[in-house]
Amino acid sequence: xxNYSDFDEAFVRTRAAQFRAQVERRLxxxxxxxxxxxxxxxxxxxxxLHAYMLRVAIPYGTLRADQMRQLAHIAETYDKGYxxxxxxxxxxxxxxxxxxxxxxxxxxxxxxxxxxxxxxNTIRNVTTDAFAxxxxxxxxxxxxxxxxxxxxxxxxxEFQFLPRKxxxxxxxxxxxxxxxRAHDVGLELxxxxxxxxxxxxVGGGLGRTPMxxxxxxxxxxxxxLLPYLEAIVSTYNLMGRRDNKYKAxxxxxxxxxxxxxxxxxxxxxxxxxxPAFSGVDQEVLAGIEAQFAPPAFKxxxxxxxxxxxxxxxxxxxxxxxxxxxHKVENHAIxxxxxxxxxxxxxxxxxxxxxxxxxxxxxYGYGELRISHExxxxxxxxxxxxxxxxxxELLRAGLATANVGxxxxxxxxxxxxxxxxxxxxxxxxxQEIATHFKALGLEEEIGGIKIKISGCINACGHxxxxxxxxxxxxxxxxxxxxxxxxxxxxxxxxxxxxAGPGFAYDEVVPAIERILRAYLAIRAGREETFIETxxxxxxxxxxxxxxxxxxxxx
Length: 553
Fold this sequence. Notes:
Blueprint: H1 6-27, H2 33-41, E1 45-47, E2 52-56, E3 62-64, H3 65-78, E4 82-85, E5 91-93, H4 101-109, E6 127-128, H5 143-153, E7 168-171, E8 185-192, E9 195-202, E10 215-221, H6 225-239, H7 250-257, H8 259-273, H9 280-291, H10 303-311, H11 313-322, E11 323-325, E12 331-336, E13 347-349, H12 350-363, E14 367-370, E15 376-382, H13 386-395, E16 410-411, H14 426-439, H15 442-445, E17 450-453, E18 467-474, E19 477-484, E20 496-497, E21 502-503, H16 507-521, H17 529-536, H18 539-546
Parallel strand pairs: 6-7, 7-8, 16-17, 17-18
Antiparallel strand pairs: 1-2, 2-5, 3-14, 4-5, 4-13, 8-9, 9-10, 11-12, 12-15, 14-15, 18-19, 19-20, 19-21
Helix pairs in contact: 1-2, 1-4, 3-4, 3-12, 5-9, 6-8, 7-8, 10-11, 14-16, 16-18
């Protein structure tokens, strides 16, 4: 894992001191709210519906155990005892007092963390696969490259005032557990012969104009990454619209100009600036890669794990649902669901954070990950230790075996917190989870991705949910649109709107009609919802929703 250099330490401490002075000037009236706003946003401080909110960066979703404990301390000392993990692998504190935020930022700096560029029209937190460095199917660990991009983009003088925010995601696996096609720039590590490089995608994004990113380069040599990224962002900075914030994202720039025209401009800029990159960036990358060497994996037998699967049905169910294949045969990747049925997706209490930190220290080589699906991952766990981990999670109420099932829902904070939201998202997620548990249908339905957004900005990624739910305001009344057939993986797709929306109390019955239709028409238990949708299209699901008389095709 990456540890701060002296430069990193000094930089973060200087920014913390600057922000403390800015807060003091705001409090004594030297700065108006309009003057303070861009300064606080550069440090991740939002003014939400009820209070300030602080968004803390978790670069590429990776945390040390001591960092997780510090987040727990912040939640308990300065907030209401919990934090909210987001789809950008960050954590948000929803209730800090402005007077306390400088102390929070100092506390973050004590464990090599910060809130820089978690807001504003700049390059945001670089995200990646939560299984990175552990997954059996990856070409290479993408996190060293993500760290290189973080260092390059942080406080980059040219890119602090882009037309709009800019998001980069990178994956080391063709399975794309980082949703790269829905990002401003998506990077996939690929091999050409013996050479590792990147497939580069540009112009993806969700929100009011959802688009999947097309490929701008099929193969980019590793040494060309930073100059090529710089060429992309510089081209966007010049070509991007500033007359309309709803049309200012790079996806609109690429769409309006055409991919070929945008690519030509990028390639011209790349040719111009490439000679200035002397290779120092590759030397820096080599130093970063050395810090991401895998831990010394324990050589423990797996017999106890295998016996536990035979004799403990609760453990067997949890293992089936919450474990993933590790690149080392006698290890596994553990996803800890923080979505117990009826819980708020993404919320973790201080006690839960501390327990997860303790488990990471005892069984996981001191490392944790935050997934974009708002769960916590222990990336390296010896199979021999899995029964003990499960027992501790069970005692703490964190052994919910629902990863990838209907209750493992992505949801934004919605109207419970966000000033931009037009409808509630959290209660909808909670009711879906508890409803299908009560029906006893969760396991029968099997793997499915439901994603919920409380407004058109799509922070809940509803466009790429197998079933997406978008809450809107219709003449002062919450109205929920349903989309079908979206996907965030290698077969990425934007969901199709099913038809007219539903009132709040009609949403759960509507989802039940869709899923009962799926159970009736699937080819067999092995055919998932999204596979059935791809085979048959939306018609049978629309009929289940609206009936023949109201078919919204």
